[in-house]
Write a structure and sequence with these properties.
The structure holds 2 protein chains of 2 kinds.
Chain A: E1 21-22, H1 27-55, H2 59-64, H3 68-90, E2 95-98, E3 102-107, E4 112-118, E5 122-128, H4 131-135, E6 138-145, E7 151-157, H5 158-185
Antiparallel strand pairs in A: 1-2, 2-3, 3-4, 5-6, 6-7
Chain B: E1 11-12, H1 18-47, H2 52-55, H3 57-78, E2 81-84, E3 88-93, E4 99-104, E5 110-115, H4 117-122, E6 124-130, E7 140-145, H5 146-167, H6 176-187, E8 201-204, H7 207-216, H8 218-233, H9 238-251, H10 260-287, E9 291-295, E10 298-303, E11 308-314, E12 318-325, H11 327-332, E13 335-341, E14 362-367, H12 369-381, H13 402-427, H14 435-458, E15 460-463, E16 467-472, E17 477-483, E18 489-494, H15 496-500, E19 503-510, E20 513-521, H16 522-538
Antiparallel strand pairs in B: 1-2, 2-3, 3-4, 5-6, 5-11, 6-7, 8-9, 9-10, 10-11, 12-13, 12-17, 13-14, 15-16, 16-17, 18-19, 19-20
Helix pairs in contact in B: 1-3, 5-6, 7-10, 8-10, 13-14
Chain lengths: 188, 544
């Protein structure tokens, strides 16, 4: 026989009531820097095109639709401003929490989601950082459960990411050891 | 043991007939990657009026291509080696990019066997090792002897069984004693290890079933749509078709006068008939003589007319059971069942899950509800007896009616906004308030209202203490069932509408995919999430 005590479902730990850890304060600025770079690149390409069309053989296009460049530039400007402002709005809604048996990640301003991945289902974990991340002293942590779909926490402080990586790796190993141990003990 | 033990530690080749297999593989690879290139060249040649035929280069080009493919196949055969060891199999292949594959037997999820017509004539088989997690290269042994395939199967079975007994349960969560009985069962296997033992056959399909599968094939609907579109496009050719019919008419003068309409109907009917014939033949090719049976702790299926395919899935490896039916299957009172094993398991060192070998799904193309329930009991039953796969089961709970509103909003937004933009551009701002635009909006509203209502009626979920079943559908229906302890992660999502109404969507991530339960009470979703996490984190049973 094996013990099978009833679990009072109300007493289960609630994944909602945890101490959410915010992402690194510089993360919003790092995202904005990324957006800015992209805006500059696309803006440059756009300006080049604009110049080429206006001075080249395509000037007839501009004469046919004189408002077109203004509209395109206005739309581009609005989208760029919005993309630059968005990280400052969205980043405070993101956060993570590490519990004894799982890791939680929340995100979303309008569509909010909380994802939980138990340690004993994580196959492996890794940290990475792009040059831009490193410029801001940030790193990302990814955990990989089975079935694809890496679960990535972006915008951790470099040191935090490293500590978390060590902690999660240790937890994965501990869970694996627990599973083997119990499978050895179980038949008795 | 029926199969004699092959030599260990020797690099071996497969039978020379494997060249046929490599030829097929090479042709498929070439067709996959170069067909577009060839098509573009063809188009360019056509546009530039470059005449291959008169210049005589086309036959040479074809000859060269055939020779190259043949040489490629020969090279691939001559570079293919495999070696058996006590606990693993090693495969070396490739001549440009050499790959070495090392597959420990206990990592093998299942051994699937294919017999092409050539294989069957020569008593050979092509073995595929399902190794979710190990591979970037394919674990395939083409054209090996049936004895070797049997031996491999027994060996892998034994390794797995040994492991399971150590785990304290066999794949079905049965006590160890029963698993031992299963092992004896294996030892006393009949000479032909691939033959289903009598009394354990779950599904066996007849020729009339092939007809049903063909008719229920989704491709039949798609093809019918394509045919309708083709009929539209064929208008320029109508004259030609009518001309042919005219010819027929004069040839068989006794039939009287064809009217144009009759001619068109005849052509369409003939098209439909050919189409049906094609899908039914397709069903015969894929599923002829389909049999599903239990062997020890595994489910095995075999079917196919020319190329016979065998799929073996350990029941412990099954992550999810999916029972579905479309309109046609509903009419026949039958279902289609899929047992999904663990999909791609990521390996350390690579974050790209795209190139992992996906284990084969066990698909039963046609079965009764009772058989599906029997299979469900065998896979999930002892742990989660409260689940069901039958969509009509009264146990399913409805989701919140606000689900309808969300669906309507989602499906109405794009056509209405698109219509508005189009109307504005075409007729100016005044047209936005006109009757045609209002009618357009109302039409979409009514249509998506109906779709939303029907989708909501089909949505449902039910769970017991160990597992959950989720139902969905619009015209057809589909039920996904799984055990909590096999879950890989849980997400609770809340849209602005859901937050206002105290609702949430539960997403359960399995290694075979995601199962969603939308628009349930927020407390229910959070409670289920916490309970599933508790179940996963406290279980001692392996998930695969």
């Amino acid at each position: 026989m094996f013990p099978n005590a009833q679990v009072p479902t109300e007493s289960l730990p609630h994944a909602e009531h945890v101490d959410w850890q915010p992402l690194h304060p510089r993360f919003a600025r790092r995202l904005q820097a990324g957006v800015l770079l992209r805006v500059l690149v696309f803006g440059g390409i756009g300006a080049g095109l604009h110049y080429g069309v206006a001075t080249g053989g395509m000037a007839v296009l501009i004469r046919a639709a004189p408002l077109l460049p203004t509209v395109v530039w206005a739309v581009f400007g609005v989208i760029s401003l919005w993309a630059l402002a968005w990280p400052a709005i969205a980043v405070p809604y993101r956060g993570y929490a590490v519990r004894d048996r799982d890791i939680l990640y929340r995100s979303g301003v309008l569509w909010r989601s909380v994802r939980a991945v138990p340690f004993n289902r994580i196959q492996h974990t890794k940290t990475d950082s792009t040059p831009l991340d490193r410029r801001f002293g940030l790193a990302n942590l990814s955990v990989f459960p089975a079935g694809g779909g890496a679960h990535k926490i972006r915008g951790l402080g470099g040191e935090t990411a490293e500590q978390l990586w060590v902690f999660v790796s240790a937890r994965i190993e501990a869970e694996a050891a627990r599973a083997t141990e119990s499978s050895v003990r179980e038949p008795a | 043991m029926s199969a004699s033990r092959p030599d260990y530690g020797v690099w071996r080749r497969t039978s020379p007939f494997a060249v046929v297999f490599f030829l097929g593989a090479t042709v498929r690879a070439v067709a996959g990657s170069y067909i577009q290139l060839v098509a573009s060249f063809g188009a360019i040649a056509y546009l530039t009026r470059f005449d291959f035929l008169t210049r005589g280069s086309l036959p040479w080009a074809i000859l060269l291509a055939v020779l190259a493919i043949g040489a490629g196949a020969l090279l691939r055969y001559s570079f293919f080696r495999f070696k058996l060891e006590e606990d693993r199999i090693l495969i070396r292949q490739g001549f440009v990019k050499r790959t070495a594959l090392d597959v420990p037997f206990d990592r093998v999820q299942g051994i699937n066997v294919e017999r092409s017509l050539v294989d069957r004539a020569l008593g050979l088989v092509t073995v595929r090792l399902d190794t979710a997690g190990t591979a970037t290269a394919e674990g395939r042994l083409p054209a090996v002897s049936t004895e070797l395939a049997d031996w491999l199967r027994t060996r892998v079975d034994r390794g797995r069984r040994g492991k399971r007994v150590g785990d304290g349960e066999d794949g079905l969560g049965r006590p160890v004693g029963e698993a031992d009985a299963g092992a004896e069962d294996l030892a006393g296997m009949p000479e032909d290890a691939s033959a289903p033992a009598t009394g354990k056959v779950l599904v066996s399909l007849t020729n009339s079933d092939m007809l049903r599968i063909g008719l229920a094939d989704r491709k039949a609907l798609v093809l019918a749509g394509a045919l309708a579109a083709l009929a539209q496009a064929a208008e320029p050719f109508e004259e030609a078709i009518l001309g042919v019919l005219d010819g027929l008419q004069t040839a068989v003068a006794d039939l009287g006068t064809f009217s144009q309409a009759t001619a068109v109907i005849l052509v369409v009917l003939a098209g439909l008939f050919l189409l049906l014939l094609a899908v039914v033949i397709g069903a015969f090719l894929r599923h002829h003589d389909f049999t599903l049976w239990r062997q020890g702790t595994a489910f095995r299926s075999r079917g196919g007319l020319l190329t016979q395919k065998e799929v073996v899935v350990e029941s412990a490896k099954i992550q999810q059971l999916t029972l579905s039916r479309n309109l046609v299957l509903r009419w026949f009172g039958r279902y289609r069942l899929e047992a999904l094993p663990a999909g791609a398991i990521p390996v350390p060192g690579g974050d790209n899950t795209g190139n992992l070998e996906i284990a084969e799904n066990l698909t039963v193309p046609l079965l009764d509800g009772s058989v599906a329930e029997q299979m469900r009991r065998q896979v999930l039953g002892t742990e989660a007896p409260g689940l069901t796969l039958i969509p009509a089961s009264p146990g399913f709970m409805r989701v919140s009616p606000y689900y309808i509103r969300a669906l309507v909003l989602r499906s109405v937004a794009v056509p209405v906004l698109g219509g508005a933009v189009f109307t504005l551009g075409q007729w100016g701002p005044a047209a936005i308030t006109s009757a045609p635009f209002a009618a357009w909006c109302l039409l979409w509203l009514a249509l998506s209202g109906l779709i939303g209502l029907q989708s909501w009626r089909r949505r449902g979920y039910l769970h017991d203490e160990e597992g959950l079943a989720s139902r969905r559908g619009l015209i057809g229906s589909r039920v996904d069932a799984f055990l909590f302890r096999k879950v890989q992660g849980v997400t609770v999502k809340r849209s602005p509408l859901q937050r206002r109404r105290g609702l949430a969507t539960l997403e359960v991530h399995l290694s075979s995919g995601v199962v969603t339960v939308p628009y349930i009470a927020r407390d229910t979703a959070a409670g289920l999430r916490d309970y599933i996490l508790y179940k996963v984190e406290s279980t001692r049973l392996p998930w695969h």
